[in-house]
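Incident review: delayed structure delivery

Summary: a single-chain prediction request sat in the queue longer than the usual turnaround. Root cause was a stuck worker, restarted by the on-call engineer. No data loss occurred. The affected request and its eventual output are reproduced below so the record is complete for anyone auditing the incident later.

Affected input:
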Amino acid sequence: MLGDIAIQSDSLNPKRRLLISGLAELVEADGWLWTIGRIDPESQAPMQMDIRYGGLTDHQLAALLDSPSDTKCPSPCDPSLATLVAGGRHFVRTRQQLVDDDIWYNNANAQTYFLEHGIDHCMYAITPRSELGFSGIGFFRHADRPSFTERQRQMVETVTGEVKWLYECGTPALRGADTEKLTPRLRSVLALLLDGNLCKQIAELLHLSPHTVKGYIRDIYRHFGVKSQLALIRHFRQKETPSA
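Output delivered after worker restart:
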């Protein structure tokens, strides 16, 4: 798999997508979500600032983006993930290693944003960055499937721990202070804009009217001092040439 990726284009995002898709197939995941972001020091919830994804339905993607925004009932995994990110070392954990089944299945966040959308078992591969920032991948399985095995976790840990450009090269600058001032909803719209989605697509993904999304996009453009989606993407993207 790594050999096939090595002969592809030097552009980072296609390489990243190929590697994560291949790894997801290897561990029999139904979908995946790559993101960079920061941990909110007060709520301990992740704040997603850029995403890539595969194998997820529109409803599942929208639910995964909305889950960290539910401050009234946060995900039961968030405190453990925040502690691990603060530790400053790369890690891979299954959902069972983060939270017990009893807590997970009785948690309103898990029920609303995961189980009701057919997602149950998760595995997270995360590399901390400076100032509670992180870059990571979530692998997901449908609710009718078994959990990830320890062998599969070790496979993900081996690959993601060695391929440094998967996390560190070509990711957008976090611009933490600027992005953290956005509301959770605006951060979700920002992440979808950076992934190349247009207004109509974002409206469908987040179950909002196009008029509402247009207003959100105007607010985001104004916040970052840009006038188009292309300018916004250029504002965040760095040169995408992976290191060896």
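Verification: Residues 239-244 have pLDDT under 50 and may be disordered.
Action items: add queue-age alerting; document worker restart procedure.
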